[in-house]
Design brief:
By secondary structure, this protein is mainly alpha-helical. The chain has a domain of 53 residues. Helix content is 82%, strand content 0%. It contains two helices and no strands. It is elongated and about 115 Å long. This is Integrase core domain containing protein.
Length: 84
């Protein structure tokens, strides 16, 4: 029995080492594919963001609304003067 184990043990160790190397290659390949998929999605997202038209802002109407809001805030914050 010991003689049989003596011959089988190196073969088993070699088989285990080969299996571990194949599994490591598979994991590396799978991770590479996942990374490529993520990069592809990021690129597609970036293109969608870059292709999106920038909103146009009418500056004069924005300034008018801002002035109106400031007037309203000033009116709210003023302390009422009550004359006796």
């Amino acid at each position: 029995m010991a003689t049989l184990l003596h011959y089988i043990q190196p073969w088993m160790q070699k088989s285990i080492a080969e299996f571990e190397a194949r599994m490591e290659q598979r994991m590396e390949g799978m991770m590479d594919r996942k990374i490529q998929a993520v990069n592809k999605h990021l690129d597609a997202f970036e293109l969608r963001v870059l292709e999106r038209p920038t909103p146009t802002i009418n500056l004069s109407s924005f300034q008018t609304k801002l002035a109106s809001l400031r007037a309203n805030v000033d009116a709210i914050l003023t302390t009422p003067t009550v004359e006796p």
